[in-house]
Amino acid sequence: MENAIEVKGLAKYFANFKAIEGVDFEVKKGEIFGFLGPSGSGKTTTIKILTGQLDPTEGEAFVFGENVSHLKNPKARKRFGVLTDNSGLYGRLTIYENLKLYCELYDLPLSKIDEAIGFVNLKEESKKKVATLSKGMTQRVVLARAILHEPELLFLDEPTSALDPVNTLHIYEGLRALNKKGTTIFLTTHDMQEADTLCNRVAFLNKGKIRLLDQPNKLKKQYADATITVELTNDEKRQLRRDAAGAEEMYQLMKDNRVVTVHSNEPTLGDIFVKVTGGELV
Ligand SMILES: Nc1ncnc2c1ncn2[C@@H]1O[C@H](COP(=O)(O)OP(=O)(O)OP(=O)(O)O)[C@@H](O)[C@H]1O
């Protein structure tokens, strides 16, 4: 499968401070790839390099085979969409008018505006001025703008950080639909649940370095402990090992009709992150 993104030995120093160092990864076309890490781990710095907003100190990065140093050319940026916190919206214009400006810039039919506004669940607010919107609404307008031209690759920096649970789920649904239509998604988040729900593969970033990279399910299997928890009719919770002795005990408990529930002790991505990095996810 062709790669949408390739990163080799990437580093960014701010004076003597190493924001990221020795970062290597690839994102395949069609993937939703999660770049996960706590505040200050280097997620935004990486997105800024990948979208041509910052030059790396060392290493190389390619988007659709093109060195990102060429992305200063606006035409080259047409193939991707970006959602970061620097919104670039016009406060005195309405949501609709802001999106119309972008339609004109990208030479898109105005019908795309309604699609994008529906995507982010803002139909009723479309005539409101952006300056009057809440943080979560503004975040959704920025997302609408990022997907307006149905980019082949979408960079999302913490896309749901200001959203309520209902709109978060709405955005997840929309992102999955967009991905099904062919958009590759590079997503940064510190929300491990979000990453687990959306991503095909995740990279754990801590203090500027990638510590682990794989599919969420593989990681959970790899780090699962060898026990299951059985809840019994007398409210007792018993830990059974996944071996012959555990199977024997389970057989007996089931035969005696004492089993209420059985749970595998699978770790969350958050548990694995803390285990691997020794750090907290804040
Ligand atoms: N322009 C800059 N000058 C100096 N230091 C910077 C600059 N930009 C980022 N840094 C530092 O680099 C580190 C990584 O920052 P970055 O914004 O990439 O983190 P992040 O993982 O996106 O964090 P958050 O989740 O809080 O957005 C931080 O310690 C930050 O203070």
UniProtKB/TrEMBL annotation:
Report one GO cellular component.
Answer: plasma membrane
Where in the cell?
Cell membrane
Source superkingdom:
Bacteria
Primary location: membrane
One protein family per Pfam: ABC_tran
User: Which UniProt keywords are listed?
Assistant: ATP-binding, Cell membrane, Coiled coil, Membrane, Nucleotide-binding, Translocase, Transport
SMART domains per UniProt: AAA
Q: Which GO MF terms does the UniProt record name? A: ATP binding; ATP hydrolysis activity
Which residue ranges does the record assign to the ABC transporter domain? 5-232
Q: Where does the record place a coiled coil?
A: 230-257
Which protein are we looking at?
Answer: ABC transporter ATP-binding protein
Q: Look up and give the organism this protein is from.
A: Psychrobacillus lasiicapitis
